[in-house]
Amino acid sequence: MSTLDGTDARILLALVKDPRQTVVAMAERLGLSRNTVQARMAALEKRHAFLPFDHRISPAPLGYPLTAFISVHVEQRKIAELATALAAIPEVVEAHGLSGRADLLVKVVSTGAEDLFRINGKILACDGVERTETSLSMNELVPFRMSPLLKRVLER
Fold first, then answer.
1. Which of 97, 140, 154, 156 has the CA that lies 20 to 30 A from 85?
2. Which of 9, 67, 88, 1 has its CA nearest to residue 41?
3. What gap in Å lies between CA 16 and CA 21, rounded to an integer?
4. pTM confidence score
């Protein structure tokens, strides 16, 4: 994937500031034509620049105030099947393959400690899981963000 240029970065920063704005409103604010903004957004979408928008929904109002990270140690040859099994657990909101001591880092949300115990049990029951280590998220210190990287693109 080639890097973004300043116009792409400006469009993405405008979306970060106001994700509900229309293409026409964004074009006006940025001093670009509607066609330019629309074409650039279509190109960004083809380049997979947009993550799923549900990433920004807080789980707490949905009844899941507790967030935990579960380090999972697995049989290496079963990672692909395990990814499918983890995706079938609704409380698993992210999972990453890792290098280092653990093989996977799984972010889960739960209704409380008992629910977290149940979720951890579901993960442990997946074929290929050897063991898990759970850490509670006490506070989100730096939420997911892209603005600093987009601003860096503009500085180039």
1. 140
2. 9
3. 10
4. 0.84
What is the CB neighbour count within 10 angstroms for residue 82? 22
* Interatomic CA distance for residues 4 and 44, integer angstroms: 9
Indicate whether 2 pLDDT > 70: no
For tokens 């997979």, the residue is 48
> What's the average model confidence in pLDDT over 132-150?
94
- Give the 3-state secondary structure of residue 40: helix
DSSP state of 116: H
Count the residues in the chain. 156
Which residue from 107, 112, 78 is spatially nearest to 91, judged by alpha carbons? 107
Enclosing H/E stretch for 132:
strand 129-136
Sequence-ordered list of residues with C-beta below 8 angstroms from that of 128, at least 6 positions apart, any chain: 74, 75, 77, 78, 79, 81, 82
